[in-house]
Amino acid sequence: MRPYFVKMKRIIFLLAVLAIWGNITAQSFDKYFENKTLRINYLHIGNSSTEMIEVSSFSAGGIWSGTRSFLIDPHRYGDMLLEVYDAATNALLYSRSYSTLFCEYRATERALTETGSFEECINIPMPKSPIKFTFKVFDRRNVSKLLYVGKYDPAKTVTNHFVNEYEVLELHKGGKSENCIDILFLPDGYAKEDAEKLESDMKRFASYVMNCSPYKENKTKVNIRAIKGFSEESGITDPNGGIKRNTLLNSSYNVIDVDRYLMCLNVWKMYDIADDAPFDVIIIIANSDKYGGGGIYNFYATVCNGAPQADYVIVHEMGHLIGGLADEYYNSEVSVMDYYPTDVEPVEPNVTTLVDFDSKWKSLLSSDVPVPTPASEDHKGVLGVYEGAGYVAKGVYRPWLNCTMKVIAYNQFCPVCTNVLIEAINYYTK
Ligand SMILES: [Zn+2]
After folding, report:
1. CA separation (Å) from 374 to 188, 278, 381?
2. Which end of the chain, N or C, is less packed with Cβ atoms under 10 Å?
3. Centre of ligand 1 from the C-alpha of residue 412, in Å
4. CA 376-381-384 angle, 5° bins
5. C-alpha 405 to ligand 1 mean position (Å)
6. Measured in angstroms, how far is the CA atom of residue 67 from the centroid of ligand 1?
């Protein structure tokens, strides 16, 4: 009797959750939010064993270019979860899953002994009434911890206003911002004398995105713009090469001790510059010949302009940025330790430990494909379950032999990653 009772309780609970969810999504965006963006600027501080959030300031302006239909995030692919509640009724109004550089830092060897402090930002639609917001963090075992509870009152809380300073280049126009994913390029390390290069690079990278599936089949759902912002000096800081440059965004190689990991440490300033244009995602285009880049889910990505495989780098990093896709490669220099515990199903949609394969691409497999699938030539082009992914050769599996998330190959996303990217584009178009 007991199992039946427990099961019934679960069903009743699920029905209640669905009823609340249905209620919120059915109510219009306009009831709770204005067509304006509110940004929460905060510091994420800690090490491998402890962490905290310190909210620094709020800023507001522009329009809300994000989703109006999926106010409650349909997926929890990221390490962080922001939730926004109506202060009066405690109803959940908005949530957003995302990842951060801090969450990668805390898994490094350095974080065992050193505390780090990282600037972070999150944009939400401007509430019409007072809200409560919470930050939760999830570890690699999917255990959550509440990090912060804050309040915001649109009538009372001190708020800075967006200031427009830069010219905006329109690179691809698919439609109105509220019906498109708005991709914004931010140039870094382009001095005034690199003006021509800046414009031609921005056009070149926009064409890399728009000539790759599934973006090219969804041209009317994508906008790409660039901020025309110059740096004091030409080039990008590279600590291992002894190079220091004074640049617009102060991005650098070798963040969290991975030489090719090119990231920006002045995130607040980056968002201040970005808010001169409507945007859903930010991609830094760095003026450097050295191979490098990075992409953090629903946060930002970087690519360098001079690498011979730059077309591949931008679409690969966008896989992390908009799709929450995992790296399908292994044997890499990535310095994170035990990133995917093999007894836990990872949240990323394109890798599995087979702990809960039903929640991944199992339903798409042909019945004659063995699980796991041998990585042999005759399985080329066959959706399967191939061992080796997520930085390890054993215990983590990928859906395709050689997807763009695994090998340096442009426009070669596997069917699983393609479906995830289409869903991610659609998130912003409704
Ligand atoms: Zn893939």
Report:
1. 44, 46, 13
2. N
3. 8
4. 70
5. 5
6. 25
Report how far ligand 1's centroid is from the alpha carbon of 186 (Å). 27
Average pLDDT over residues 235-259: 93
Kindly report the CATH number that applies to the domain delimited by 21-160: 2.60.40.3250
Strands (E), 229-264: 251-252, 263-264
How many angstroms separate the alpha carbon of residue 264 from the centre of ligand 1? 26
Q: Kindly tell me if the per-residue pLDDT of 375 is higher than 50.
A: yes
Homologous superfamily, domain 164-324: Collagenase (Catalytic Domain) (3.40.390.10)
Residue 4 — pLDDT band, cuts 50, 70, 90? very low
pLDDT given at position 14: 46
What is the CA(413)–ligand 1 centre distance, in A? 5
Residues, CB within 5 angstroms of ligand 1 (ion)? 350, 403, 405, 414, 417
Give the mean pLDDT of the chain.
Answer: 91
Distance 406 CA to ligand 1 centre (A): 7
300, 281, 268: which is closest to 40 by C-alpha? 268
Interval between CA 364 and ligand 1 midpoint (Å)? 13
Q: Does the pLDDT at position 17 exceed 50?
A: no
Distance 104 CA to ligand 1 centre (A): 21
Q: Could you give the CA distance from residue 198 to residue 379 in angstroms, rounded to a whole number?
A: 43
| C-alpha 302 to ligand 1 mean position (Å) | 20
Specify the pLDDT at position 396.
94
**Same fold for the pair 21-160 and 164-324:** no
Query: 139 or 18, which is more confident?
Result: 139
- Spell out the domain ranges in the chain: 21-160, 164-324, 328-411
Q: What is the pLDDT of residues 253-291, one digit of tens each?
A: 998 888 889 999 899 999 999 999 999 999 999 999 998
Q: What percent of the chain shows pLDDT beyond 90?
A: 83
Residue 214: asked if its preceding bond is cis (omega within 30°), the reply is yes
140 C-alpha to center of ligand 1: Å? 20
